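Predict the 3D structure for this chain.
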Amino acid sequence: DGQQLFFSHVHLHGGPAPVRQYLPQLIDLIFKREIDPGKVFDLALPLDDAAEAYKAMDERRAIKALLRV
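Done. Predicted structure below.
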């Protein structure tokens, strides 16, 4: 719980990550089959099942869902 974390003097640091900056390069590497996005996505569903993909991530049944067109 938050109170226990606060009083244990644990420090949690975070910051913004410029993820979008790397997207064009990463997409190019995926299309060239130089990297395997399967190592990132653990659930693949058709686009029509987008709501189920979000539900699976929310329920921690999936870490990252891939929607196929």
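Helices lie at 2-7, 19-31, 50-58.
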